[in-house]
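Tokens as discussed.
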């Protein structure tokens, strides 16, 4: 057995545990005593070896101590000496540094030597003065040389120009400018300065025709030479202008091909029309034109091909400038055709609708008010605009790939120029006015554009019922109206979802804050329309309040009878009554659908905002530019300085110049991550209010028949009728309940059958069956409680009741109690007290109340019954 000594050095060493472990590791056939003896012997031998080694090493350490002490003393003396030497050197360096800061660089190599030799500061100051004099003399000498050279160059420059050697002329002019900068503002050379400017313009004019020819014929060597001449005289701007001028003509020709094709097709159509004019008079329909949307992709393809070829040539001709020259060409060209581009986009959006196509108008014309009344922006217009924008987006991605080597700012400006024609449709500013007569109406935001479009689309949804029905068929109209209301909800949600998708595709989400305001406003308008219909349905169902009161609380349990306009039950059949009930119950599905659909849409909108926040990666300001991420950075001056290459999408291009708008959007995106955030706060509140109004209407309709039957109960003549004399012992009251209470009971017992179809429609699956059953039971209890409350209120209004009336009323109450029990509803204590007190003989009522002491009876109600029956409790 090998003893592992490392275990004995462990702080948590347990001797018992170690011995038990050693015993367990022995061979099963080896006696335990022998194993322990061997283990003890091994431990003793190991201990002796350790002790011997320790003694040997201790003796050797003791012998080395005197020698180590002597070495320590010697090192300490050396350190003290080194410290003194270092202090002296440090003092010398400090003196030298103080002198270096006061005198020219050329004397500083003397400082260390002078200081080391103990030279005084006066000697160094003298050397500095000598150096200043020397430098001034050298500057005067160089200036005199430049002045002499400038005079000579001024006298010979005309000969250089006459020779026609343009590179030599450029070199001469460059030298003249250098000499002028050296001489400074000297009056004697003012005429030379003017002469130089004239000569530079002259040389620039001589270079331009040759440069134009070189660019046109693609002569690389000549273009490079002429470029060098312009650079030498500081006229790079002329190179840019000439380059753009030469090549923009070809691009403009590509752009104007659309009008040429339109004119050709128009002329061709006119010839054909003349041939068959005798057979038809529809002149415009025969003209075949090419739509802008079908022509635009081919234009972008040809333009991209042209720029690719020009990029390859510019790499050879202008290796130092091609990264800026070719993008500048595209920027200037797009700025030139921008107004025409906007006009064509506007007309293309109008061509998709016959009304606007006939008037040759588009989205901008509609928004500016320059259209007949009733013509609104439709989603078809925006879809056409989005299709054009997607084409431009594909072209922009190709341009970003082609100009990938360009500087980030150049690439940013280029892509902004590509998307420039769509800016009037995203956020209309004063410079994009269509009509000067209505400047105030020509300004709008993208959110307002969507709001106008969505409002017009929702207005086209027919929410009213069919034609007005006659008596006996009005329930059908009610059902039709409710059905259309319910069907309109998913249609509206689809429109809202499409608007969100358009915003992401068209603006990259940069107008999300404006869109949310528009969605909230449109949703509010839609719910207001539903509420107006709901108000008309109240009057239609005959439960509209005539006292002008507001909404009723507690599901109508506190309504006053005099303030209700109740539909006369006698005028309609029982079947018609139940059709009203079914129509009213269907309104609950409208509220349920609106609540669920709006909640799902709002949750989806919040998820979209969160996804947009992640995609833009623009939530952190003030951080350094990360080329691998899409960050817009604030440079501290209030302007967005630059963006990462990966962030050059539509949103970043639009936000980079509007930091305040960017901050507003980013704050919204951050807030959307909070679970308490409401994307549509006002609409959410209005949905809840609409649901309450629906519940109130449904309750009023369901309780209407009960209220009608109970409205005159307190004034029935049977309560105060006297007993009729009879020769036979006949009962003085009817053994059957009266019709007013039996009709209510039958209505309550039939109501669950009416609620059952509604509950089945809400469940739609077994998982919601319990919820649907709870829904039906809840409404059943509400109506039953309301009926009980109305009945007890009528009973309280009875002024006097005879014994005969009391016996009849106890039968009525007992019937209603049995109906409530059949509906699994507990009997209210008030109704139970009325039944007990009315069923008790008048002479026993006093003893009953005193013996009860409030255990089973409601004492205020019992006292009221005593007052009705003229029973004195005193």
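Sequence:
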């Amino acid at each position: 057995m090998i003893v592992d000594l490392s275990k004995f050095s462990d702080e948590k060493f347990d001797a018992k545990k170690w011995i038990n472990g050693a015993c367990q590791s022995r061979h099963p056939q080896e006696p335990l005593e022998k194993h322990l003896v061997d283990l003890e012997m091994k431990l003793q031998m190991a201990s002796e070896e350790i002790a011997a080694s320790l003694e040997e090493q201790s003796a050797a350490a003791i012998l080395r101590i005197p020698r180590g002490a002597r070495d320590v003393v010697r090192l300490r003396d050396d350190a003290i000496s080194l410290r003194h030497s270092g202090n002296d050197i440090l003092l010398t360096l400090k003196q030298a540094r103080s002198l270096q800061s006061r005198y020219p660089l050329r004397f500083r190599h003397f400082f260390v030597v002078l200081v080391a030799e103990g030279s005084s500061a006066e000697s160094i100051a003298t050397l500095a003065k000598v150096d200043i004099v020397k430098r001034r003399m050298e500057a005067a000498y160089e200036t005199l040389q430049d002045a002499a050279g400038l005079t000579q160059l001024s006298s010979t420059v005309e000969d250089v120009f006459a020779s026609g050697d343009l590179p030599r002329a450029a070199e001469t002019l460059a030298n003249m400018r250098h000499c002028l900068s050296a001489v400074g503002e000297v009056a004697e050379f003012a005429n030379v300065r003017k002469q130089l400017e004239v000569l530079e313009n002259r040389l620039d004019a001589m270079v331009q025709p040759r440069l134009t020819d070189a660019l046109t014929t693609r002569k690389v060597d000549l273009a490079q030479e002429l470029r060098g001449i312009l650079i030498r005289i500081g006229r790079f701007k002329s190179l840019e202008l000439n380059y753009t001028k030469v090549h923009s003509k070809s691009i403009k020709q590509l752009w104007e091909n659309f009008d040429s094709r339109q004119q050709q097709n128009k002329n061709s159509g006119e010839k054909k029309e003349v041939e068959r004019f005798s057979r038809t008079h529809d002149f415009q329909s025969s003209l075949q034109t090419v739509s802008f949307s079908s022509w635009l992709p081919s234009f972008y393809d040809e333009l991209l091909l042209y720029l690719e070829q020009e990029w390859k040539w510019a790499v050879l001709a202008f290796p130092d400038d091609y990264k800026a020259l070719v993008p500048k060409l595209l920027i200037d060209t797009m700025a030139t055709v921008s107004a025409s581009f906007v006009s064509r986009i506007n007309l293309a959006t109008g061509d998709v609708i016959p009304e606007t196509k006939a008037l040759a108008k588009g989205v901008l014309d509609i928004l500016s008010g320059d259209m007949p009344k009733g013509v609104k922006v439709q989603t078809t217009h925006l879809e056409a605009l989005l299709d054009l924008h997607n084409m431009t987006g594909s072209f922009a991605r190709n341009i970003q790939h082609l100009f990938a080597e360009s500087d980030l700012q150049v690439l940013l400006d280029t892509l902004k120029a590509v998307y420039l024609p769509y800016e009037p449709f995203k956020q209309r500013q004063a410079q994009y006015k269509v009509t000067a007569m209505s400047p105030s109406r020509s300004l709008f935001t993208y959110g307002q554009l969507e709001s106008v479009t969505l409002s017009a689309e929702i207005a086209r949804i027919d929410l009213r019922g069919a034609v007005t029905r006659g008596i006996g068929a009005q329930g059908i109209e009610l059902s039709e109206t409710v059905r259309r209301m319910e069907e309109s909800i998913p249609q509206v949600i689809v429109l809202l979802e499409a608007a969100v998708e358009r915003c992401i595709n068209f603006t990259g989400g940069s107008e999300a804050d404006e869109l949310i305001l528009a969605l909230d406003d449109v949703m509010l308008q839609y719910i207001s329309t539903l509420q107006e219909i709901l108000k008309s349905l109240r009057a239609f169902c005959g439960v509209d309040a005539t006292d002008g009161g507001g909404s009723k609380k507690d599901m109508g349990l506190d309504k006053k009878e005099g303030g209700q306009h109740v539909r006369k039950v006698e005028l309609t059949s029982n079947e018609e009554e139940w059709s009203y009930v079914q129509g009213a119950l269907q309104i609950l599905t409208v509220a349920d659908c609106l609540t669920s659909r709006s909640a799902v849409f709002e949750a989806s909108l919040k998820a979209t905002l969160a996804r947009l926040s992640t995609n833009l990666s623009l939530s952190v300001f003030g951080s350094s530019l990360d080329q691998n991420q899409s960050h817009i950075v604030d440079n501290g001056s209030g302007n967005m300085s630059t963006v990462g290459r990966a962030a050059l999408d539509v949103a970043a291009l639009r936000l980079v110049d509007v930091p305040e708008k960017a901050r507003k959007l980013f704050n919204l995106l951050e807030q959307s991550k909070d679970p308490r955030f409401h994307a549509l706060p006002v609409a959410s509140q209005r949905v809840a209010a609409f649901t309450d109004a629906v519940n109130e209407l449904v309750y009023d309709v369901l309780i209407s028949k009960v209220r009608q039957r109970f409205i005159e109960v307190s004034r029935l003549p049977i309560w105060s009728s006297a007993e009729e004399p009879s020769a036979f012992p006949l009962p003085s009251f009817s053994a059957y309940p009266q019709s007013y209470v039996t009709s209510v009971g039958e209505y309550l017992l039939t109501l669950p059958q009416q609620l059952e179809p509604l509950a089945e429609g809400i469940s739609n699956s077994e998982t919601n069956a319990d919820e649907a059953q709870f829904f039906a039971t809840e409404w059943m209890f509400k109506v039953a409680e309301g009926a009980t409350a109305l009945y007890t209120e009528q009973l309280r209004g009875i002024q006097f009741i005879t014994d005969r009336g009391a016996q009849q009323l106890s039968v009525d109450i007992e019937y209603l109690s049995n109906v409530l029990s059949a509906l699994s509803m507990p009997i209210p204590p008030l109704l139970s007290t009325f039944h007990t007190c009315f069923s008790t003989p008048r002479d026993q009522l006093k003893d009953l109340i005193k013996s009860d002491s409030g255990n089973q009876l409601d004492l205020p109600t019992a006292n009221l019954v005593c007052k009705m029956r003229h029973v004195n409790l005193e």
